[in-house]
Each structure stands twice: as structure tokens, then as C-alpha cells.
Design the sequence.
């Protein structure tokens, strides 16, 4: 396949942030989308969002992949994957064993990035794009810019690619309001995305992920087009 | 569970190197063994070796885990996981798309290390141990000491653990002969291990992994106790 523009592998959860990251990356790259299912509660809904987003980008089957990394759920320890642990709402974070939010999946982004890098190496892609957000986020350590820079260094030393592959995190220093505005400008299809940690029909409006998303739309002065439970303050 | 000694998660393939690494780590740590199956040809044989090794260490079920990271095989591109690509023998390396050996699984050790780190974070382990060998190896970039150091830095920045978890690669600068000697001294059960990339009953004696292993035993002046095909020069 010959393309004029370099290829980027985008980690696409089906959520708002990674979708905006994809639309920003599309300005300079051809895209391949990688979706990882790791046994999270809302996996089926996120998968549906991912496929709709890949359809919107008109990606052929060779440019979209879904990987099962369910062993992360098998390890346990996170409310996102362990049915025995409730997902906190209304500003509670919960606390896991290490003082991190109970929704933290240990070192999750390292797994996602490793999968994207392996595929990128096989595709000859020049970039891996991740929609990680550092400042206006849930405080997961694997969303920090300095982690991503260290991982990029590991990629340069640990693959046959050297400096030909970069890890790009275009949202890492944005607020949620800036992400919504950037996505609007780039034409990202917010209506296809799903961010809720708890529910699959109507977003709960109360989990950390919903709260951050709604905050972003409020800051941007826009209305989130996805359905929320009755009573949600937008 | 209270233990006097710190806990280490050892990546245990069932092969010679990781088994020697485990026996070296056991001098200072309680062990937990992590085995990853990634769709390699000899996965069933390696799994059997892993269980025998964990039995020898008398590890309970909570201290041994097997993870399926078969998505690495689904990505394709390596002779270790793709039935369409032959495993080279007799000193041929083959060459993949990036000039690396055709047995290279892109960024494999990053996946293995990420899984070990996630489990280590949940267990409160102090070390992740990998039997990577840099100098006397097949030339995979993800076996280099500088890759492992970069990955350790990513762990320190990308988990809640900081400097409480280290990545240890006790064999990384050893020759194969030194590994055999160190394993002998530590009492490692070579007879339980499996290294061959091609076969599961008798080791082929001809693939890169067999050749490196046999070289190690010759250098150490010992006889490898596992069965080889008739005609193999030990």
C-alpha cells in the first residue's frame, strides 16, 4: 500500500479524548486504529464506539484492530475490571492499595503502548498516538508526560526502529475544555464516543470519567451530544 | 501473607535463562513466577516446563500465573508465532522487515515486563526479574541492558511505585557459559527447562535457541540433561 503521508497508530478507546487525538493526528497522518479490551465493565459499549469511529474514518479492516488484553482484568485490583469493587461517584475517588484511585488499572498505558508499538513496527508506522491527559485527569501516573517520554526512550532502545517511531500525546497538557474545543475545530464526532465507566445505555453523569467530560463541555460552552441519565447537570 | 524477605516477580518462560535467573533471585527474594504464552510454536512445551519449575520451587497457586498475550501472535510477523514462516536453523538468522532476526517478536519484552510490573504492583513486590541476555544472544533489541534501564525509568514514572520496584536482569552481561555455570552453582534444575524454538519432544539442536544453549554447556564443560534429536553435537 502506498500512501503520501506517514502512518500513525492511534490508541482508540472509543472515548472522547482518544477520538479528538485521532482527529488531530489525521491532519498529518494516515491512521490505523488500535482498540484494546481489558475486561473493563463497559467494554462492549466502548467497542461499539470504536467501530463507529473507525467507520467514520473509512478505515479498512487492515487498519483497525481490536486486541484482548484481558489478563489485566485477571490480575484484579481495579474497580474498572473487578465486579466486586464499586466505581466511585460524585467526586469520591476511592483509594487502591497504593493510594491511587480505585479505578486505576496498574500500568495500563504501558500495555496499550506496547501493543501499539508492536503493530507500528510491523506496519512501518512513524508515530503512536495516545490521548493521555495529565493535568485535568484522574491522576493516573501512566498518563503523565514524563512517563510517556520515558516510554518513548524505551521504544527507541528496545525495537528495531530507533528514532523512526515517536510517541505522540497531543492532549497531554490540555484541560478538558481545551480538548473539547480542539475536537470541535478538528471535526471530531463526539456523538459517536463513549466515556462512562459505569453504564452502557445512558452515561451515568456521576463517575469520574463522566464528570471530567461534562466539565470539558461546560468549559467549552458546548452541549455534549451523548445521552445522559435524567437529572444529569450538563 | 507475611514473609521475611522481599518478593520478586520472575518472568519465567520455562527456558534455561529465566530458570537460572529465578534461582539467583531466590537467594534474596521470595518468588512469584509469571509465564506468558504469546502463541509461540512451542507454547505447550514451555508451559509444561514452567509448571514443573514452579512445582520445584513449591510455589502455591497465588504465586504462579500464566497469562495469554496471544494478540502478539495475532499481529503476525515473527517465525516464532507465524506458521507460514520457517524457524531458521544451522546459523541462518533469517531477516525480518527491519533487518532483525525473523524470530524476533516485535517489542516482546515490553509486553512481558508490563505484565510483570502490573502484577508486582498488586502484590507489593520489590523487584521484577527477567532472564534477558544481551551479549551472547540472538540480537533482539529488547534484550539490551539500556532498554531495560529505560523501561525501569518508565516504571518509576508510570506506576504508583516510584523507586520501590526495580527491574533486575542478572544475566544480561553473562555469556551462555557463565549462565550455565551460575545456574549449576545455584542448583537450577536444567533438566526441567525447555529452550527449543521448533520442537516439543526432543530439542532440535539446530535452531538459534538450541545452538546458544548447547554452546553454553560446552563452554561450562557440562552435559545438557534434556533430550536432543539423534545426531546433535553436544
Sequence:
Amino acid at each position: 500500500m502506498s500512501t503520501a503521508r506517514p502512518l500513525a497508530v492511534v490508541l482508540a478507546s472509543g472515548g472522547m479524548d482518544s477520538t479528538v487525538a485521532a482527529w488531530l493526528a489525521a491532519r498529518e497522518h494516515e491512521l490505523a486504529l488500535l482498540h484494546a479490551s481489558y475486561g473493563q465493565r463497559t467494554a462492549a459499549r466502548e467497542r461499539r464506539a470504536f467501530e463507529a469511529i473507525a467507520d467514520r474514518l473509512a478505515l479498512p479492516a487492515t487498519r483497525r484492530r481490536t486486541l484482548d488484553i484481558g489478563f489485566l482484568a485477571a490480575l484484579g485490583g481495579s474497580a474498572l475490571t473487578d465486579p466486586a469493587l464499586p466505581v466511585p461517584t460524585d467526586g469520591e475517588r476511592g483509594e487502591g492499595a497504593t493510594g491511587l484511585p480505585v479505578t486505576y488499572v496498574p500500568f495500563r498505558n504501558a500495555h496499550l503502548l506496547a501493543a501499539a508499538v508492536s503493530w507500528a513496527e510491523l506496519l512501518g508506522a512513524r508515530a503512536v498516538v495516545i490521548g493521555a491527559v495529565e493535568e485535568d485527569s484522574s491522576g493516573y501516573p501512566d498518563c503523565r508526560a514524563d512517563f510517556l517520554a520515558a516510554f518513548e526512550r524505551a521504544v527507541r532502545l528496545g525495537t528495531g526502529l530507533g528514532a523512526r517511531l515517536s510517541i505522540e500525546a497531543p492532549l497531554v497538557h490540555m484541560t478538558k475544555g481545551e480538548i473539547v474545543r480542539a475536537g470541535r475545530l478538528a471535526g471530531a464526532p463526539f456523538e459517536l464516543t463513549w466515556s462512562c465507566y459505569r453504564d452502557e445505555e445512558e452515561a451515568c453523569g456521576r463517575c469520574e470519567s463522566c464528570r471530567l467530560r461534562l466539565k470539558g463541555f461546560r468549559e467549552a460552552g458546548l452541549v455534549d451530544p451523548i445521552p445522559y441519565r435524567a437529572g444529569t447537570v450538563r
The radius of gyration of chain B is 17 Å. Residues 108-123 of chain B form the longest helix (16 residues).
